[in-house]
Amino acid sequence: RLSIGSMGLGGAQGAYEMALKYAKKREQFGQPISKFQANAFKLADCATELECARNLLYKACWLRSNKRPFETLAAMAKLYCSELMYRVANHAVQIHGGYGLMKEYNVERFYRDQKLLDIGEGTSEVQRIVISRYIGC
Prior knowledge:
Layout: H1 2-25, E1 27-28, E2 31-32, H2 37-65, H3 71-96, H4 107-119, H5 124-134
Antiparallel strand pairs: 1-2
Helix pairs in contact: 1-2, 1-3, 1-4, 2-3, 3-4, 3-5
């Protein structure tokens, strides 16, 4: 689960970096599209969620490295990071507009690849079962 979480975080980071670079370079109405509030807010949300995901994943890895119970946090990290990759890839495609679905821009790859992470090492629903049992539901 930690490896899938890591792949989700890495994919989300890659999609975010592509979107940010594109938004700073692409101009509309005489200014970069990163200056438009809708795009700026999407990018700000992505940056915030990436930092949260990174800390969750690092904590789960630290627990495992120190031979402490980590299974629940691993499930949380896998769930959050794989779903984060979907959200960030979706924002990246939106920011790229029509180019977002073209193979030449590579951002569509993150959108496609995310589905594997959603399923691998247990679906999001399975992760929610693990987490809900831990919290006593």
